[in-house]
Write a structure and sequence with these properties.
It is built from five helices and two strands; from the N terminus they run αββαααα. The chain has helices at 2-11, 32-43, 50-72, 79-124, 126-131; strands at residues 15-18, 24-27. Keywords: Membrane, Transmembrane, Transmembrane helix.
Length: 132
């Protein structure tokens, strides 16, 4: 949200520019900004304004998301490509399963129809006329 960037500008140099895919603002995930925001909130009177509360919530959620990504091993630059590749593999696996299921059902229907025709042939005596 914009309120965090506004608060970061008031607090100091808590934000850094990051290159790659265009310039964008990214917050450090080490908790430094959150600690600064908490300190600033404690210094304010009891009725903290909504901008401060939103900035605290946003910074805490970014910190938590960063930690979660690190625990999952998805915090590096290759993670996006890895996840995209895994999604493609999963999609291919689902397509293969669907095709295999369709083939099995198709063969089961063919076998059932062949057995029905064989049963009709026996019932009508066509099989007996072929033998002799």
């Amino acid at each position: 949200m914009r309120c965090m960037r506004f608060m970061a500008g008031e607090i100091g140099d808590g934000a850094r520019r990051e290159k790659g895919g265009g310039e964008r603002w990214a917050m450090k995930y080490d908790g430094e900004m959150l600690a600064r925001l908490v300190a600033q909130a404690e210094a304010q009177p009891v009725g903290a304004d909504m901008v401060m509360i939103r900035a605290l919530i946003e910074e805490a959620s970014e910190l938590g998301a960063g930690r979660a990504l690190e625990r999952l091993g998805l915090a590096d630059r290759r993670a996006e490509g890895d996840v995209r590749e895994l999604r493609e593999l999963l999609s291919a696996w689902r397509d293969a399963k669907k095709a295999a299921r369709g083939a099995v059902v198709g063969w089961a229907v063919r076998i059932a129809m062949a057995l029905v025709l064989l049963g009709l042939a026996v019932k009508t005596g066509l099989l007996g006329t072929m033998r002799g």
